[in-house]
Specification:
Elements (H helix, E strand, L loop, with lengths): L5 E3 H8 L3 H9 L5 E4 L6 E5 L8 H10 L5 E3 L9 E2 L22 E2 L10 H9 L8
Antiparallel strand pairs: 1-3, 2-3, 4-5, 4-6
Helix pairs in contact: 1-2
Bound molecules: zinc ion.
Length: about 140
């Protein structure tokens, strides 16, 4: 396990992509660990940066919402090759556009998938955006 990194609220806000108000709220709620450091006059809150799997409210909601929903799809009926990523297949969407930009006529849900069957571009983008991968 990595050593805990302590940063200021400003730095935590930047690193966790949350507002400083949210950081302070999370500290109050005990969802982020923080300690006051420094001398009697210049005390500052130092926030322990959480592990990578730590989720803020929005991401947690997103994961809950997407749980059990297929996000990987085959672009062809043969269901072979690589699968691509679509988080939300809206019923109004007639032409599926995958995360990587690929367009196909139709899509077929993938039931079981390992990482090496995923489109590497879709996988990379989904990871960068913190989207649920729903991989086995
Ligand atoms: Zn793709």
């Amino acid at each position: 396990m990595a050593e805990l990194e302590r940063v200021t609220i400003q730095e935590a806000s930047y690193r966790l992509n949350l507002s400083q108000a949210e950081i302070r709220r999370y500290i109050r709620e005990g969802r982020l660990q923080a300690t006051r450091e420094g001398g009697p006059r210049d005390r500052t809150w130092m926030v322990e940066l959480p592990d990578e799997g730590w989720l803020d409210d929005d991401k947690a909601r997103y994961h809950e919402m997407a749980e059990g929903m297929p996000v990987w799809w085959w672009p062809t009926e043969a269901k072979t090759g690589i699968a691509h990523y679509i988080l939300d297949v809206g019923i109004e969407e007639t032409v599926p556009v995958y995360l990587c930009g690929l367009v196909s006529d139709n899509l077929w849900a993938v039931s079981r998938l390992t990482e090496d069957q995923c489109c590497p571009i879709c996988l990379k983008l989904a990871r960068e955006q913190g989207l649920p991968l729903n991989l086995d």
